[in-house]
């Protein structure tokens, strides 16, 4: 009898370890604490029962391989970190990971450190001691991207080596390694040996967004679930969530390691001709900055639902995503309806879960009338 119990206990423990489905990986972007009014988001605004993992974005990398603190930590950063760690009192199961990199860090330092065994070792040592010092549960690397933006061709191989060394060191201490990777097929071909990248990560957060934006001179949704009949080139037809995820699967990434990256934001344009709001219609730059996110061409879901609820709303039946229009402003984004459809897609592919960039642009205060965190709740209610 006791033997049977032992076997049952072993079997259920094994199931817990091997069943990685249900990940909700949420990014906390430290700079959002400086936003004005209802846009101000602090670590204590996080609901730790809506996320399985919270990723602190970002720290940087120095040329000597050590972790650098990007935010003004002496003043408010350390306090925010303490607040973040205090979320474990509300949910002891939530994992809090340190995230390094991001778009603004570029690629060059990562390329140089990854190429040099001594610098890689210095990075592993520095990351582990930083994690120890502040009590993180793991590490997330957002190198954007190997072989691009100041990187070199050898990055493709060196990235895998770096991940392998980080993963061994972290796993030996019972911690995990994740990375944010591109969801664009052309970008993936430049940057990754996907099967080997997958082997050397515990979780793969595929950034299945930013397929279109004000970096192009025409209208496009930042994260369509599926292609549109208006897509013309072969590349345009693959700039969507379904194609990007399918590429990672086809190249050998195990579905259980993949988290589908979702946005709680959007990207917008100023239309060249306000009467032509079609996909691929001409634009002359990004949409006007929102009062909270304060960047041209970018908008938070919280801004859309709180401030632009009177704009004309359109649903694209092919792409399965919404956009709103007023005058010459065209904003494509995700709302709880499109998020639900994307999570259903993740379920249909048996993915490990989803990743969300980022906590601060959900309607975290519940101002729009559907309770706090409508996007994260749509995820929670849909994800298997
Ligand atoms: C809108 O712009 C697209 C892309 O340039 C063009 O193909 C289409 O004919 C335009 N539609 C109208 C109504 O002008």
Can you put this structure into words, describing what you see?
This protein is an alpha/beta fold and 384 residues long. The chain has one domain (17-264, 334-382): Glycosidases (TIM Barrel, Alpha-Beta Barrel), CATH 3.20.20. Helices cover 34% and strands 22% of the residues. It is built from twelve helices and 15 strands. It has helices at 2-18, 73-86, 108-114, 117-134, 155-172, 185-191, 194-199, 234-238, 241-250, 301-307, 336-348, 374-382, and strands at 23-29, 53-61, 67-68, 95-101, 138-142, 176-182, 203-207, 258-263, 265-271, 283-286, 298-300, 312-316, 321-326, 329-333, 353-357. An eight-stranded parallel β-barrel has the order 1-2-4-5-6-7-8-15, surrounded by seven helices. The two termini are 34 Å apart. Residues 1-19 have low confidence and may be disordered. Bound molecules: 2-acetamido-2-deoxy-beta-D-glucopyranose. Residues 276, 278, 280-282 line the site of 2-acetamido-2-deoxy-beta-D-glucopyranose.
The largest sheet, given as strand count, sense and whether it forms a barrel, is: 8 strands, parallel, barrel
Tally the beta strands. Answer: 15
Strand % is 15-25%
Which stretches of 5+ consecutive residues score pLDDT under 50?
1-19
- Taking all Cα atoms into account, the compactness measure Rg is 21 Å
Strand order of the largest sheet: 1-2-4-5-6-7-8-15
- Summed up, the domain count is 1
Q: So what's the overall shape?
A: globular
């Amino acid at each position: 009898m006791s033997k049977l119990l032992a076997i049952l206990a072993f079997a259920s423990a094994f199931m817990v370890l091997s069943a990685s489905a249900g990940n909700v990986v949420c990014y906390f972007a430290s700079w959002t604490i400086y936003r004005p009014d209802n846009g101000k988001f602090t670590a204590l605004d996080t609901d730790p029962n809506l996320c399985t993992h919270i990723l602190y974005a970002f720290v940087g990398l120095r040329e000597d391989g050590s972790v650098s603190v990007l935010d003004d930590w002496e003043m408010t950063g350390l306090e925010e970190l303490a607040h973040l760690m205090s979320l474990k009192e509300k949910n002891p199961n939530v994992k809090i990971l340190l995230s390094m990199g991001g778009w603004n860090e570029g690629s060059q330092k990562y390329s140089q450190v990854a190429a040099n065994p001594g610098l890689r070792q210095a990075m592993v040592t520095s990351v582990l001691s930083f994690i120890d010092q502040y009590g993180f549960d793991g590490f997330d690397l957002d190198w954007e991207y190997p072989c691009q933006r100041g990187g070199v061709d050898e990055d493709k191989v060196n990235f895998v080596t770096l991940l392998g060394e980080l993963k061994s060191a972290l796993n030996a201490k019972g911690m995990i390694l994740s990375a944010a990777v591109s969801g664009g097929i052309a970008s993936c071909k430049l940057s990754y040996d996907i099967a080997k990248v997958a082997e050397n990560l515990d979780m793969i957060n595929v950034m299945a967004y930013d397929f279109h934006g004000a970096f192009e001179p025409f209208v496009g949704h930042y994260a369509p679930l599926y292609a549109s009949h208006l897509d013309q080139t072969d590349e345009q037809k693959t700039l969507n969530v379904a194609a990007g995820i399918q590429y990672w699967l086809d190249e050998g990434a195990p579905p259980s390691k993949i988290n589908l990256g979702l946005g709680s934001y959007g990207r917008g344009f100023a239309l060249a001709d306000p009467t032509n709001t079609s996909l691929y219609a001409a634009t002359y730059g990004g949409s006007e900055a929102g009062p909270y996110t304060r960047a041209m061409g970018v908008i938070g879901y919280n801004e859309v639902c709180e401030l632009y609820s009177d704009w004309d709303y359109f649903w694209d039946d092919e792409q399965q995503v919404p956009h709103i229009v007023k005058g010459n402003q065209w904003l494509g984004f995700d709302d709880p309806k499109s998020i639900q459809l994307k999570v259903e897609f993740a379920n249909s592919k048996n993915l490990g879960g989803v990743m969300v960039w980022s906590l601060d642009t959900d309607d975290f205060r519940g101002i729009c009338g559907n309770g706090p965190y409508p996007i994260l709740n749509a995820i929670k209610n849909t994800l298997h």
